[in-house]
Design goal:
With about 425 residues, the protein is an alpha+beta fold. The chain contains 13 helices and 7 strands. It folds into 3 domains: about 200 residues, no CATH class; about 70 residues, Helix Hairpins; about 150 residues, 2-Layer Sandwich (Heat Shock Protein 90), CATH 3.30.565. The strands form 2 sheets. The chain has a 5-stranded mixed beta sheet, with helices on one face. A two-stranded antiparallel sheet has the order 1-3. Helix 4 runs antiparallel to helix 5. It catalyses: ATP + protein L-histidine = ADP + protein N-phospho-L-histidine. InterPro entries: HATPase_C_sf, HATPase_dom, His_kinase_dom, HisK_dim/P_dom, HisK_dim/P_sf, Sig_transdc_His_kin-like_C. This is histidine kinase.
Length: about 425
C-alpha cells in the first residue's frame, strides 16, 4: 500500500512539472490568467485521475488520499477556474470507477474545496512563506476531514493500523511540500523573466534618452545664451515674451535632466544617512502640498535605519512616489501613510494611500517607458525613480486595488557596517 502511495507522488508531480515547463517556456501564456488557470486546473485534474487509477484503481476513498493535494493546489494557485476544473475531473473519475459511498467522497472533497476557496482570490500576491504555511494547514485540514468522515461513518478498513495512517499523513505533507516547491519555482522563474525583460527595455530606452538629451542640450544652450543677451536691451512686451521663453527653456532643461538621470543616474555625493531623517525632511517639504490637496500625511520610521546613497537622488525618488500618492488621493479627503522598518537584511519604506488605485493591467506596465496614469504625465518621473533606486541596489514593488488605493514598497540595502563606523 505504501509503495502505491509513493508511486502516487509521481502521478501528482508529473502533471505539475508539465505545467511548469509550459509556463516557463511561454511567458506570454503565463501572463494570461484565464488560460494559465485552465491549464493548472487541467493538470491538477489529470494528477487526481492518475492518482486514483495508477498503479492500480482505488478500492476505497482513503486508499488514494494524496489526490486531495492537486485539488488544493488547483484552488489556491488556479483560483476558482482551476479548482472547478479539477473538482469536475475528480467527480467524473470517481463516478466512473463505481465504488460505493460516492456521496461521502463528494462531500469531503467539497469541504476541502470550500476550505481552500477563501484564500484563492489573492493567494498569488501573498509572500512565499504565507503560501507555504496555508498550503500545509489546508493539507492537514484535508487529511482530518477525509479521515474523520470515513471513521465516523465506519467506512475505514479495519486493516489500516494507526501506524499506516500516520505514514499516509507524513507522505501527504511531503508531497504537498514538493508540489508547493514546484509552483514557487515556477513563480520565481517568471519573476526573473520579468526582471530581465524590464532591464533590457530600460537599457535600450536609457541609451535612446541619453543620445536624445545630448543632441538637444547643445542647441538649447546657444538659444538660452542669445535670449539672455536679448533680455538686457528688451523693453515692454518684448521683455515679457523673452522672460516667458526663458521660463519655458528652464522647463525644457528640467526635462532633459530627467532624461539624463534616467539614462545614467549620477551619484555625485555618496554618503551614509539615517532613513528617518530623510523621510522627515521629505514630509516637511510635502506637508504644504498635502494640506492644499486635503490629504492627511502620516509617517512612522524606526530608528537606527541607515542607507548609503546620494542624498539628493534618493530624496528625489522618494518624493516622486509620495507626490504620486498625494495626487491619487486629492479627489477626496485622503490619507497617505509612510512607514520605514527593517526586514531581514533590508530596509523597507512603505508608502500607502487610499486613493483611486490601479487595475491589474495598469499595475503590470507601471514604470514602463513613458507610461503614466496621469492625464498630462510623461512617465519620466517614475522611470527616473526606478533607475535611482536600482542604482543603489534597491527595488520598488507596487500593489494596488482599483478604488481602494496603492501601496509602494521600496526595498533598500542597509549601509555597510564599515561605513557606519567611519
Amino acid at each position: 500500500m505504501i509503495k502505491d502511495l509513493l508511486l502516487d507522488i509521481l502521478d501528482i508531480l508529473f502533471p505539475l512539472l508539465l505545467y511548469q515547463l509550459v509556463c516557463i517556456t511561454n511567458y506570454n501564456f503565463y501572463k494570461k490568467d484565464l488560460r494559465r488557470q485552465m491549464l493548472l486546473g487541467l493538470c491538477c485534474g489529470v494528477a487526481i485521475v492518475l492518482s486514483m487509477l495508477l498503479p492500480t484503481s482505488i478500492t476505497n476513498d482513503f486508499d488514494s488520499d494524496l489526490r486531495t493535494i492537486p485539488l488544493i493546489i488547483a484552488v489556491l494557485y488556479g483560483s476558482n477556474v482551476g479548482g472547478t476544473i479539477s473538482f469536475i475531473l475528480f467527480f467524473m473519475c470517481r463516478y466512473l470507477i463505481g465504488l460505493d459511498n460516492i456521496l461521502i467522497a463528494f462531500m469531503t472533497s467539497l469541504l476541502i474545496y470550500a476550505a481552500a476557496y477563501p484564500f484563492a482570490a489573492r493567494f498569488n500576491k501573498k509572500s512565499p512563506q504565507f503560501r507555504f504555511i496555508i498550503s500545509i494547514l489546508l493539507t492537514i485540514t484535508a487529511f482530518i476531514v477525509l479521515w474523520g468522515g470515513f471513521t465516523l461513518t465506519n467506512q475505514m478498513p479495519e486493516s489500516y493500523s494507526q501506524f499506516f495512517i500516520l505514514q499516509v499523513f507524513i507522505l501527504q505533507l511531503i508531497t504537498m511540500c514538493m508540489a508547493v516547491l514546484l509552483m514557487e519555482v515556477t513563480i520565481k522563474a517568471i519573476c526573473m523573466q520579468e526582471q530581465i525583460i524590464r532591464t533590457e527595455k530600460l537599457n535600450v530606452t536609457s541609451q535612446l534618452a541619453a543620445s536624445l538629451a545630448h543632441e538637444i542640450r547643445s542647441p538649447l544652450t546657444s538659444i538660452k545664451g542669445f535670449l539672455q543677451l536679448s533680455l538686457r536691451n528688451a523693453e515692454g512686451k518684448n521683455k515679457k515674451y523673452l522672460e516667458i521663453s526663458m521660463m519655458e527653456l528652464g522647463r525644457m532643461e528640467y526635462i532633459i535632466n530627467d532624461f539624463l538621470n534616467y539614462a545614467k543616474p549620477q551619484m555625485e555625493s555618496i554618503g551614509v544617512f539615517p532613513v528617518s531623517e530623510i523621510l522627515f525632511q521629505i514630509k516637511d517639504e510635502m506637508e504644504p502640498i498635502a494640506r492644499a490637496n486635503h490629504v492627511d500625511l502620516q509617517m512612522l520610521a524606526e530608528e537606527d535605519l541607515w542607507i548609503q546613497a546620494d542624498l539628493s537622488k534618493i530624496k528625489q525618488a522618494l518624493t516622486h512616489i509620495i507626490r504620486n500618492s498625494i495626487d491619487a488621493t486629492s479627489a477626496s479627503k485622503g490619507q497617505v501613510s509612510i512607514a520605514a522598518y527593517r526586514q531581514y537584511n533590508q530596509i523597507c519604506i512603505r508608502i500607502r494611500d487610499n486613493g483611486v488605485g490601479m487595475s491589474a493591467e495598469q499595475l503590470s506596465i507601471l514604470g514602463a517607458s513613458f507610461y503614466s496614469t496621469k492625464m498630462n504625465g510623461t512617465g519620466l518621473g517614475l522611470m527616473v525613480t526606478f533607475r535611482i533606486i536600482q542604482s543603489i541596489g534597491g527595488r520598488v514593488e507596487f500593489k494596488s486595488v482599483k478604488g481602494e488605493g496603492t501601496t509602494a514598497l521600496v526595498k533598500l540595502p542597509t549601509a555597510p557596517d564599515l561605513q557606519l563606523k567611519a
